[in-house]
Specification:
The structure is a single chain. The protein has two helices and 27 strands. The protein has a nine-stranded antiparallel sheet, with no helix packed on it. The chain has a six-stranded antiparallel sheet with strand order 14-25-22-19-16-17. It is about 5% helix and about 35% strand. By secondary structure, the protein is mainly beta. The longest helix has 6 residues.
């Protein structure tokens, strides 16, 4: 982990033959992360608002706020210089048998157009269950909106080892939020039943990715928010990915209401990282989150944070083999 962007640079786990490899895409030097060609948010902490805000605007307390439309016409992942491009203050908070790194960032009132001075703390912890835990917390001195996540890309066979389309995935979601052609939610919370978005039982990722479906065409694959079945605030299994080649399994637990499933559709071979060139659909991201564009949809779970409140959320990545 580096304190530039709070970024996970590598996750090394064994395969079924106990061979250890890095399963997270990234770079072997800081220059890779700071390069203008790095538009993929590899491994980074995302804020102040992860995912998209329609037309770079939202209303809060009767006031309309404008944030950078860095993915025209929308804001993506915090604007021009989000949390992924900031230096976080790092502190070792390890306990015996449990290495732990705490990162802190003060986001000033008005930074990237967002109201309120935000104190954000993110703690990464490893344990002896082969789990990487991420604890997010934040406070504000003014009403604001907040959506924090980590944007790691995974290829359980190792970076540069080809497509993730043969992997199997389970998503604990009966519903998802369809999007328009600029990938902004329409506001509908739609059932996955009978669609290519039904991953309630484990399915091969590539099995239906080429289906004649408007949502898949808009995103050039999967890049949608799934509405998790558990009660928000309760930790539960959200996703499980199985790689038949290596035998590696990754389970994701979260207390967040949503998870963005993204199949690396914008990877196009122009970025060279650890393991080689990052090609189309050569990795997947599973971003635990509040829903995209929530401030503009009253029917979505609220992403507001007020003075006196403390935001707290946890996500766990558990690795195993089968």
């Amino acid at each position: 982990i580096t304190n530039y962007g709070g970024t996970i640079t590598a996750v090394r786990v064994p395969d079924r033959h106990k061979k250890i490899e890095d399963v997270a895409l990234g770079f072997d030097s800081i220059e890779g992360y700071t390069a203008k060609s790095n538009t993929g948010y590899f491994g980074a902490l995302i804020g102040r608002y992860a995912n998209r805000l329609a037309n770079g605007t939202f209303k809060l307390d009767g006031h309309e706020y404008h944030v950078p439309a860095n993915e025209p016409p929308n804001m993506l992942h915090g604007g021009n210089r989000g949390f992924d491009k900031r230096i976080w203050q790092a502190k070792d908070v390890s306990k015996p048998g449990s290495p732990s790194l705490q990162l802190h960032y003060l986001s000033a009132d008005g930074e990237e157009g967002f109201p309120g001075t935000l104190q954000a703390t993110v703690t990464y912890t490893l344990n002896d269950k082969n789990e990487l835990r991420i604890d997010y917390s934040a406070t504000t001195d003014k009403d604001t909106v907040l959506n924090l996540t980590n944007h790691s890309y995974f290829n359980l066979s190792g970076p540069g080892s080809g497509s993730i389309l043969d992997d199997k995935i389970m998503l604990a979601a009966d519903h998802y939020t369809p999007v328009n052609k600029t990938l902004i939610p329409t506001g509908e919370i739609a059932p996955v039943a009978g669609t290519p978005f039904d991953f309630r039982t484990s399915m091969v990722i590539g099995g239906r990715i080429g289906a004649s479906n408007e949502q898949l065409k808009f995103a050039n694959g999967y890049d949608q928010n799934f509405v998790l079945n558990h009660k928000p605030g309760a930790m539960a299994l959200a996703a499980k990915v199985e790689d038949p080649k290596s035998g590696r399994v990754m389970e994701i637990f979260t207390d967040q209401p949503g998870i963005q499933f993204y199949t690396g559709n914008f990877l196009n071979g122009t970025v060279h990282g650890v393991g080689g060139v990052y090609k189309f659909r050569s990795a997947l991201a599973l971003e635990t989150q509040h829903f995209p564009d929530s401030p503009n949809h009253p029917n979505f779970p609220s992403a507001e944070l007020k003075p006196g409140e403390k935001f707290h959320s946890s996500t766990i990545y558990r690795f195993s083999t089968e």
